[in-house]
Amino acid sequence: MRARGGGRIINISAKAGVVVAPNMSAYCVGKAAQIRLTEHIDAEGKADGIRAFALQPGMVVTALAEQTAASPEAQKWLPGMTSRINALRGTEEGTRDLAVCAETCVKLASGRYDAIAGRYLDIVFDLDAMLRETSAQ
Domains in the chain, ordered, with CATH? Predict the structure, then answer.
């Protein structure tokens, strides 16, 4: 008999885990592996009430993002990304997704969305529609 626990694990992932992006293979593969690990954690923990989600948090200009934008290598190989970070620096849009991500984490931690656990989610996804769609199946 297995002990019953419970809880939710929310792995902060990235869109890079579901796309192919030039000059970002190591990062993309790492994020894809994180998403797969989340799927396995959910599958293995489900019987004990442990649910896992991989959440794409949106674009937030963090200290790491700023370091990336300042890197000559990133500027050379990822000019689109570094330009986007620089354009968002100091703007409301550069921090807006952080609040949306926090709200989404609270929703996922509530247990209400356990039926859609074990998959990649993005803060722009309509979780309620996904829940309805899953319930209808």
Answer: 7-122 (3.40.50.720)
